[in-house]
Amino acid sequence: MGCLALNPACIIEETAPNSCGPASAKVVEVLDGDTVVFETGEQVRYLLIDAPEVAHSTNEESDCYGDEAAAQNRLLVAGKTVDLEYDVECDDRFNRLLAYVYLDGRMINRTLLERGHGRVLRVAPNGAGHCAEFAAIQQDAADAGVGLWGMCGESPGAVNCD
């Protein structure tokens, strides 16, 4: 049976922007430079950015700039309600939601990259719409020597946007 114009289920289905997860949520924990936890317990991994890893136990060491990237992410979003934009695939193999995260209209994924707190990482099919822009932002950050590009002696290399 088709949808009737007055059927509330049809109205919700037609107006829902995406069924991946919440449109907005409060960040209660920052796990690292590219992953946060919402008050619902859901974890969200930022799309198109890969921050250096942090140590999760006393017998591990953080990657170069991992602690700094996590601290910057924490300063930006901890305790704040953020808006989410999803892409083609909703989650990764760890069951984390995949999203572009916004605070006051500013994309946090982009901000972290501009400040050198991570590298571009595209996992297709997600990221096609922002990949070239993010690759240029990463190159600008590397050229300026900000964040990990000035501290860790790395060069960004080519970004695969295909």
Set out the fold topology.
Blueprint: H1 8-15, E1 24-30, E2 35-38, E3 43-46, E4 49-50, H2 66-77, E5 81-85, E6 97-103, E7 106-107, H3 108-114, E8 119-120, H4 131-144, H5 148-151
Parallel strand pairs: 3-6
Antiparallel strand pairs: 1-2, 1-5, 2-3, 4-8, 5-6, 6-7
The proportion of residues forming helix, as a percent range, comes to 25-40%
Oligomer: single chain
Count of the domains: 1
Q: What is the string of helix and strand elements?
A: HEEEEHEEEHEHH
CATH topology: OB fold (Dihydrolipoamide Acetyltransferase, E2P)
CATH architecture: Beta Barrel
Strand order of the largest sheet: 1-2-3-6-5
Question: Which class do the helix and strand fractions yield?
Answer: alpha+beta
Overall shape: it is globular
CATH level 1 name: Mainly Beta
Total of DSSP H or I helical runs spanning 4+ residues: 5
Number of strands: 8
Task: Detail the poorly predicted runs.
Answer: 1-16
- State mean pLDDT (0 to 100 scale): 90
Q: Approximately how much beta-strand content do the residues carry?
A: 15-25%
Radius of gyration: 17 Å
Distance between the termini: 41 Å
For the biggest sheet, the summary is:
5 strands, mixed, barrel
